[in-house]
Amino acid sequence: MTSTAPPGTITSPVPAAPRDAAVIAGTATLVMAVAGIGANSIVLGVTGSGVPGTAQRIGDGQTLLGLAVTAFLVVAVLDIVLAWAVWRFFGSTHRELPALAAWLRVAYAAVLVTAVGHLATALDVTTGPGSDDAAAHAALTQFEVTWQLGLVVFAGHLAALGLIVLRDRATPSLLGIVLLVAGFAYAADGIARLFVPDNAVLLAVLTGVLVASSVLGEVALGVWFLVRGGRSR
């Protein structure tokens, strides 16, 4: 049967292949988890802290930081893929919220690419002639600030996704609750690191909540997508 919708009409996702969308969403989520953790670990290990010696540290870890930049770009691309998969999987039954969650994920991907641009700048100023500690440190600071702002946007995505999961009869409600907690943790952590960066106790607590809720929420949802997603819809 051919579609009778006029050209240019925006239609709802076709619910005929939710399993395909679930596999894509699950795979993207788990690959992003590995790539994101690896890239973040590299950045933290290479950059260190303080202005003195920044250029030297980046120069010594040039290859690793290049890998981190590549990994972050892969994450950004997969963010867009996951945004489509989430809209495809939930959009036929939940309408507006999946679209909101998808667009917030795309917005986060755009902010992440902008942040990665600052990492590339740090590499450029340390590998070119007349490397400058202050310029390299400034680029790294811009990366951190931009990324933290992006994580606040990402928190909105997790909150929307958590509400979708809570409303979806086929998805475990516990995952929705954990995603909402993760969204709160991402937002609180991002804001705290921007405005109270010297409060080590608060940041440690928020980081612990963030890591735990991310593992239990995002990764668990990715596994659920792969194992169960779309089989009972």
Task: Present the secondary structure layout.
Layout: H1 18-47, H2 54-60, H3 62-94, H4 96-127, H5 133-167, H6 173-195, H7 200-227
Tell me what you see in this structure.
Pfam families: DUF4386. Keywords: Membrane, Transmembrane, Transmembrane helix. The chain is mostly helical and about 230 residues long. The chain has one domain. Helix content is about 80%, strand content about 0%. The chain has seven helices and no strands. α5 runs antiparallel to α6. About 5% of the residues have low confidence.
- Overall mean pLDDT stands at 81
Content-based structural category: mainly alpha
Per DSSP, the total helix count is 7
Instruction: Indicate the radius of gyration in whole angstroms.
Output: 20 Å
Please describe the biggest sheet, giving its number of strands, its sense, and whether it closes into a barrel: none
Please count the beta strands (DSSP E, at least 2 residues each).
0
Which regions contain 5 or more consecutive residues with pLDDT less than 50?
8-16
Q: Please estimate the helix content.
A: over 70%
How many domains? The number is 1
Order of helices and strands: HHHHHHH
Which oligomerization state do the chains in this entry correspond to? single chain
First and last CA, distance: 23 Å
Strand proportion, as a percent range, falls in: under 5%
**How would the global form be characterised?**
elongated
